[in-house]
Amino acid sequence: MLQTNLLAPGHADLITHVTYDFYGERLATCSADQKIKIFRKTLEGTWDQETEWKAHDAPILHLSFAHPVHGSLLASSSHDRSVRIWEEPTGRERDGRWIERAVLTGSKGSVKQVEFGTADSGSEPRVATISTDSYLRIYSSADPSLSDWSLLQPIYIPTLPLPGTSDETPVDSSSANITNGSTSSNINTNELAIGGWGLSWCKERWWGSILCCFSGISPIIKILSIPLDTSSSSTSLLFLNPPNNSSNSPLTSISWAPSCGRAYHLIATGSRDGTVRIWRIEPPNEKLRLDYNDDGDDANSGSSSWKGECVADFGKGGARIGMVDWNATGTTLTTTDDEGIVRIYKPTYARSWKLLGQMTAEEPPHEDGNGQ
């Protein structure tokens, strides 16, 4: 694959995340130098820096653009335990730097990932965060000025009950020290060194507000249904465990694919040992859920719950996966790793995943006047 462009190295430290806006016309980068930079695509296909500003008081870890129905918004998370909501200036406010609209606090650890939820016209903007204290926090704002954000009940990921049960006993205590169902304020040092925290929203709103997440050193993916108001609690829909005789390495990244009309969903995960997995998720069959037998019992109870299976497992033994992400139609998967290699995978007609191409993130060597 050919390199088409090279962004000028403007950050003074390690770049920690890069993300596009909804239309792919702008690119945001963040860094350990505590700055955010915004680039805009030109008519010639190059990228020009539009603005930059110091956004946090510690290294920035993750960025997320909001759906354009909510305006031009950007969320950032950091080691300073905060999430900040930024809005692009307009009119007289346009001086380059984006305007800070809100600072979301409450985390007891570094906020590893932040992601805006999908949006319907007229709905409130929602943003989900996950931090090293293993809490999933979801905020929403009904304030037109975006200065007031409400926190839904924080969800402690390791102690989520199994789907279909009301038992609050922890089912996965590997992500924290747990005593009598309560979490310790001290985060395990080994977990901080090799653990991972991530989340991804379901892109299709007609199934409700649903996301998948993982925390700490556990390889288990948890899929949750998030309520639209603070009076209801979240519901565990499905837990995905690694296949038998497969790697149990901690997860490092996760991405929910756009379904684009498919009757099922795809979720991709990356692991510390280089393993990439593709999960096929089947939602409940709404038609069958209304089919009852003469006793009033659901005759197709197996079709009324979410199901999932691992349909691909590859890459074990490679470098740690840094990112997995889908294209706009959920038909191509891109991965990056600690060796700076970007790989692109696509399914074949036999439903196996084939390496379509790869490229390195290193700058190509310059040629001199003699073509050397």
TrEMBL record:
GO CC terms: nuclear pore outer ring; Seh1-associated complex
Per UniProt, subcellular location reads as: Nucleus, Nuclear pore complex
Q: Name one GO molecular function term.
A: structural molecule activity
Q: Which UniProt keywords apply?
A: mRNA transport, Nuclear pore complex, Nucleus, Protein transport, Repeat, Translocation, Transport, WD repeat
What biological-process GO terms show up in the record?
cellular response to amino acid starvation; mRNA transport; positive regulation of TORC1 signaling; protein transport
The cross-references to Pfam families, in alphabetical order and at most eight, read: WD40
Instruction: Classify the main location.
Output: nucleus
- Residue ranges of the WD repeats are 53-87, 244-282
The UniProt entry, under InterPro entries, shows:
Sec13/Seh1_fam (IPR037363), WD40/YVTN_repeat-like_dom_sf (IPR015943), WD40_repeat_dom_sf (IPR036322), WD40_rpt (IPR001680)
Family membership, please give it.
Belongs to the WD repeat SEC13 family.
Q: What is this protein called?
A: Nucleoporin SEH1
Native organism is Kwoniella dendrophila CBS 6074
Its ancestry begins with: Eukaryota, Fungi, Dikarya, Basidiomycota, Agaricomycotina
